[in-house]
Amino acid sequence: MGRPRKESRMPAITPAAVWAALDDVKDPEIPVVSVVELGIVQSVSVDADRVTVAITPTFTGCPALHVMRAEIADRVLALGATSVDVPVVLDPPWTSDRIAPAARERMRSIGLAPPPPARRAFRADIDLAPVPPRTADPTPEAGAPGASRPGGFDLSAGLASATGATFEAAPVACPFCGSIDTTVANAFGPTICRVLLYCHACQQPFEQFKPL
Fold it and tell me: pLDDT per residue over 81-133, tens digit each?
């Protein structure tokens, strides 16, 4: 007479186990970086065998978002969860400062320049001199600036006169040779989160993850 078969039970799911599983989920567009290292996982909550993993996309409209959500759900289900919810939350918004230092180094290893700290991505020179008040033409001609808005205010001219600031992108180091003798070749890279640059030192084109 055989022994009664013992039912095998999955170990209890813990938040730590979920975080460890998520560290194996890679960004489809940067396969050397996990979603945890990228900083898109906002929170993990476990209620018995029901798990919720809240994530925030790097950029609104990221085409890889649905792929990451599906893989996150699959990895957590493999832990023994019976229900996995992967909501997308936008507050607080994602920032490139959330990328882990180790992930930045791995980006460089594949020729992708990591974003600089967001606060240093651009240098700005701001002229705080007061802008002279605009006066309305008492009888503006049809189609002339000031004719289409009450009080004669021309929105485009107002923005131009109130700008008083110039912005200059901080230099980007080439991931191949480290030179900062680089220029932007195209602000629109192969994905919405990247920009194309060119290194004049080693004559290599490369991409940078956009700071945000």
Answer: 999 999 999 999 999 999 999 999 999 999 999 998 876 544 444 444 444 55
Q: Identity (one letter) of the amino acid at 102?
A: A
First to last CA, the chain: 68
147 φψ region: left (φ > 0), alpha (ψ -120 to 50), beta (else):
alpha
On whether both 63 and 37 belong to a single domain, the answer is yes
Contact 66, 179 (CB under 8 A): no
Taking residue 1's Cβ as centre, other Cβ atoms within 10 Å add up to 3
Q: How far apart are CA 71 and CA 26, in angstroms?
A: 9
What is the domain range of residue 54? Answer: 15-94
Query: What domain count does the chain have?
Result: 3
Quick one: how far is CA 137 from the chain centroid?
A: 46
Residue 87 lies in a domain: yes
Which long-range contacts does 191-199 make (Cβ < 8 Å, 24+ apart)?
191/29, 191/63, 192/59, 192/61, 192/62, 192/63, 193/29, 193/58, 193/59, 193/62, 194/112, 197/113, 197/172, 199/174
- Residue 142 and residue 200 share a domain: no
